[in-house]
Design a protein that fits this description.
Chain A has 332 residues and is mainly alpha-helical. Chain A has one domain (94-327): Orthogonal Bundle (MetI-like fold). In chain A, 70% of the residues lie in helices and 0% in strands. Chain A is built from 14 helices and no strands. Chain A has helices at residues 2-16, 38-74, 91-98, 101-132, 139-152, 156-166, 171-178, 193-203, 206-218, 221-229, 234-263, 266-271, 285-295, 299-327. The radius of gyration of chain A is 26 Å and the shape is globular. In chain A, 29% of the residues are buried. Chain B is an alpha/beta fold. Chain B is built from 19 helices and 14 strands. Chain B has helices spanning 7-22, 43-59, 72-84, 96-104, 112-116, 127-131, 155-160, 172-185, 201-210, 226-241, 248-251, 278-284, 322-334, 336-342, 352-361, 364-375, 377-380, 392-407, 413-430, and strands spanning 33-40, 63-70, 91-94, 134-135, 138-139, 142-143, 146-147, 149-154, 270-274, 289-292, 305-306, 308-309, 312-315, 381-382. Chain B has a 5-stranded mixed beta sheet. In chain B, strand 1, helix 2 (43-59) and strand 2 form a beta-alpha-beta unit. Classes of the chains: A mainly alpha (332), B alpha/beta (431). Chain A binds chain B through residues 81-83, 160, 163-164, 167-169, 184-185, 187-190, 270, 272-275, 277-280, 293-297, and chain B through 1, 3, 73, 77, 80-81, 83-84, 101-102, 105, 107, 190, 248-253, 255-257, 260, 391, 393-394, 397, 400-401, 404-405, 408, 410.
Amino acid sequence: MGNKMTGPAAANIAAAGPPRQKTHIPNHPQRKPQPTSWLGRAWQGSGPGYMFLLPWFIGFFGLTLGPAIVSLYLSFTDFDLLRAPNWVGMANYVRIATSDPKFAASMGVTLFFVLFSVPLKLAFALGVAVVLNRGIRGLPVYRAVFYLPSLLGTSVAIAVLWRQLFASDGLVNSILAEFGIEGPSWISHPSYSIWTLIILSIWQFGSPMIIFLAGLRQIPGDMYEAASLDGASKWRQFFKITLPLLTPVIFFNAVVQTIDAFKAFTPAFIISGGTGGPINSTLFYTLYLYQEAFGFFRMGYASALAWVLVVIIALFTAFSFLTARFWVHYDD
Amino acid sequence: MTFSINRRAFLTGGAGALALGVINPRIAFARDVRLRLLWWGSQARSERTYKVVDLFQDANPDIEVDGESAGWDNYWSRLATQTSGGNAPDVMQMDYRYIFEYARRDVLLPLDKYMADGTLDVSNFSKDSVAGGQVNGKTYGISLGANSVAMMINKAAWEEAGMDMPQPGQTWEEFGDQCEKLTNTTKRSRFYGCADQGGLEPAFETWLRQRGKQLYTADGKLGFDEKDASEWFSFWVDMRERKACVPADVQSLDQLTIETSPLSQGRAGACFAHSNQLVGYQAINKDPLTMGPYPVKSGDSRPGQYRKPSMLFSVAGDTENPEAAAKFISFFVNNPDAARVLDVERGVPESSKMREVLKKESQEADRIQIEYIGSLGDKFAGPLPPPPPKGAGEIQLMIKRKNEEVGFDTTSPEDAGAAFVSDAAAILERS
């Protein structure tokens, strides 16, 4: 996030250049001769700034904006990698909107995943943060340990590990067998497979937890002191003080995690072997997009799917911001 | 995606990778011509391919060959991306399913010129095996070996249960009975007669051909109807109900790779695959394996299987070194030392001379394969079907999904059959 914010913001400042009135001070011996061209003046003011930003610009234009624009163009074509793209107008978008059963199915799977994984993960992260915030000894160690899964989270290795845990003869079933229960193969049963992915996502609660911890530290201790003097229970303190004062942090975490959940790909890809199976039960939207693009070479259609996802995520985020003023309390 | 590498295989692989890195002779020479080679396949295939590359480089000091491999799934996206970017490998492994697609788009080099001037020697190939790589009368691929579909059988599992293994010429019903019996008699825990192959396209195709139908017609339409599909799914419902095959949640772990097959996972006594894969299956299975043809409709039913090029080598249309590429392929299919290294891992060699070389020095697994391909005859193997139309890859995935839907009781075999035909027709129309 930080990277994305500083780039354009810094660029704007640099582009503004030096204040106008300084540019013409006649016959000042110490001053270098001013370049007369517009370009030269601009360069002298902000050139070094741009130079420092160059690596970011190259990355942004070459690897993000350029491909994004090309994909927008391709979404109006029937590009299949081997032949030159043909313009097909809105055909791809019309198909998505009207006659693609897999679009609805995969969007359903993704929404289910978002609706369950995000609240559960945030609740879990907040719970752990509250416990850790009580001044436990060795807090940095716990913090690091709990954060670790977030670092490993989207890696292939963890997805493979998950596959082993929840397979028919995996660790989970071995434990269940101790109690005489013969569990199914969790990852390959259409009723449970999505839940193994949700649990995997909850397990990666580290980064929202760190942010919650920072938020909890900001709440002034005298508020709790006053509340407990008035006889408020711990629960009441939590709901009347902690939660309201934490809403900006909760809001931030919710937005970031929702966007992340929409984009989830690797775990479903590895666990289902790229098929989204069994019976499309783990066919995340991103996985469907990948199948269309790299499985069936419908690059044009896949590009259209990608842009639809962009719009959906944007709508969700806009909705979050619109509703925020009804429940997020900024301290002012 | 290898989830079941045992420790020894891991160490061997690691040592192999290390050795390749340390004593890589390719760095030592400055070579004039550079070829890029891309293939798909298992670790076993990669080791063999690199060895042949070394042999070729020793014989041709002026040519350098850079090899690169991928799994089947990633292979086609990688190849398409590279081809689209004008960066196709000079020599690429090609499949019968895709060669028409690529040849029609003019991204492959016709090899007839090099076959005529002897750079690419196919004089010991049969006419049919050369024809397997031809599109519209031009040769775009050289077969690296012949294969056919085959049933992989865990010999030990059947023997220790005191049972006969599935026999050639058995009907599907007899096969089912035998599998049920194995499930009931075996002492292995959670072990079943065979894998649930209702979602496996080649199995469905074989079954269709035995009934005089086919998967696709020559003009790219479906060659079967709802009733065929429903009966096929019903057969596997019955197999699951009497526990002749593995349950649905075990089967859906199968990602259509050797490593994830219920046979390799130690859950089934047999599974359906391709004959050249016996090498790959045996490499990761401790129990001795053997193979036989798929079951038949009845004793005198039409042949369902067919012999086909298991894979081919094609040359990129825009290669800078067509001569060297032709030379490499020729070496690959005609050099006796290369044949010894490659063995039958890519199928039984098409060159009659190379088959002689292997027959003399062959080991058990090779002998089984050479004999198997030879024994199919007209009883089991019929003519090569027309090349599958565009969209066939998507339909292949859909068979798997429909069989899962039936397996998990979310639909009936009748509805699945009807939905399969209409969905598949829609895919063909769209492609």
